[in-house]
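Throughout our pipeline, every protein is held as a single compact record rather than as scattered files. Nothing more is needed to write down the fold, since each code stands for a local backbone conformation. The record that follows is passed on verbatim for readers who wish to inspect the format.
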Amino acid sequence: MGKEIFYFLIFPGLLFSGIVGGFLSWFDRKITARVQFRQGPPLLQPLYDFIKLLTKETLIPKKGSQFTFFVAPILALFGAVISAVFILLPLFGIKTGFVGDLIVIIYLLNIPSLSYMIGALASGNPLAAVGASREMKLILSYEVPFLLVLISIILKSGMSIKLSEIIAFQAANGAFIGSVSGVIGFIVILMCIQAKLGLVPFDMAEGEGEICDGITIEFSGTTYALVNLAKYIMLFVLPALVVGLFFAGMNFEGINILWSVLKVVLVVLLVTLIRNTSPRVRIDQAMRFFWIWMNLLAIVSIILAIFGL
């Protein structure tokens, strides 16, 4: 029991993934600033922002369900942390997990987004409801190609649905990114995690210029700090999952430590560059993009994986 609590609260859970996620958030903001010819924030800015929010007053809307609104950010943080535990333990070579943990991870990764929706709807704010509606449509759009890409991964790994076995298979036979189906699948899953993170061009659920932060408009103080912490963790967890699925995971022996870190940073860099070089799309355009083009590419990836390509 003590080991499980340590995994959840310290490493690789809340504390570790929160710190690394905060650093990656700084990296994302720094690259964004450089692209826009600005200086960018200092290294500890995400920490300053988190602490500042904790000291601010937490406002609970009178309309709607106050209890549900307050619990939603806690549930979002729980989903992000437990996802970090399930994904990072195999990546760090700690022998744990069970057959089918990849399926569980799929469900866990949806908890933060669903929690934001629940909190937004519980606030009673019409703009938050619009954001929740957009988030729901977005989830229904990107989850299908995300699942199809995982099917191609399962096929390529000899029908394994355990993350540690998928990583071990790549270590023995080469990273999936080195195949045609792997490259196509990587493109699809990169777009999916862009949407899961709610980043441009798929940030219509917040839509700062349209619905004033939409899905998070009513969060403040401690509740908004928890939302931001969950987002920090997801910014680390999702790229780490991509590294495990396509780049043969991580190796912490000798020079491989640097390469393992660079793989995660590379995925975050690609996400950041997409965010800064793409305009926001409408929700109907996003749905069409995932339902038609990403599903098509994911199916092509599956067919190529069947033929061993």
Observations:
- The longest helix spans residues 126-156.
- The chain is about 70% helix and 0% strand.
- The radius of gyration is 19 Å.
- The mean pLDDT is 91.
